[in-house]
């Protein structure tokens, strides 16, 4: 199944790669929550092609009036362009993110960066891969970690806590990074490019595909309240390895 999803995602990436200068930018209630016509085009394309691949499936998608509830049976969780602001600005770090859940349990995940032609993917129980090569989360301690974080840009009330925690992470790790694409951040932890990532609030389409990839790569994820990640619910998000996660929680608690 995952191989067929990958081929559909590759085709979706071509829509982004061939985007012209007229992005058709609109806001979704604020000047920082933006959507382009390409977000809508990619989501429509994915809904259409994945419906053919798995007749009778349902969708949880970011854009438009699509369903926002994770359904029983086969349900795709889709972010057509994670990192829309990056896409608008020409900061070539965005992703097409597609997860497949069966009875609300993640079974497949594909995250593709159309600008680098990198595709992270996993199928439950089969390991995680980047362009055909198996990937693994790191095993370093926090002091040897590269920490990534998100700023929850639609909820400014989390900014003080976000940046205070970033300061603590900066002082207790190698470095910190903010990339603007949660799906890729999670995959970077899965592949050992980074070692820990956190954000005060994420939507299912931001993290679902990356979560399965991370788990299959041996990484750990939970909320910042130490609760299990639910692929159908908005929550805080933390992913790391088994050696640095408890150290990070000590920073969070102090």
What would you say this structure looks like, in words?
The chain contains 7 helices and 14 strands. It has a 7-stranded mixed beta sheet, with helices on both faces. The model has no long low-confidence stretch (mean pLDDT 95). It folds into 2 domains: 2-134, Fructose-1,6-Bisphosphatase, subunit A, domain 1 (Fructose-1,6-Bisphosphatase, Chain A, domain 1, 2-Layer Sandwich); 142-253, 3-Layer(aba) Sandwich (D-Maltodextrin-Binding Protein, domain 2), CATH 3.40.190.80. It is 33% helix and 28% strand. The chain is of the alpha+beta class.
SS-based structural class? alpha+beta
> Can you tell me the CATH superfamily of the largest domain?
Fructose-1,6-Bisphosphatase, subunit A, domain 1
Tell me what portion of residues adopts beta-strand conformation: 25-35%
Task: Please tell me how large the radius of gyration is.
Answer: 17 Å
How is the CATH topology of the largest domain named? Fructose-1,6-Bisphosphatase, Chain A, domain 1
Taken in chain order, the helices and strands follow as HEEHEEHEEEEEEHEHEHEEH
CATH architecture of the largest domain: 2-Layer Sandwich
Strands ordered across the widest β-sheet: 3-4-5-6-7-8-9
In DSSP terms (H or I, runs of 4 or more residues), the helix count works out at: 7
Please count the beta strands (DSSP E, at least 2 residues each): 14
Question: In this structure, how is the largest beta sheet organized?
Answer: 7 strands, mixed
Q: Helical percent range?
A: 25-40%
Distance between the termini: 45 Å
Q: Can you give the mean pLDDT?
A: 95
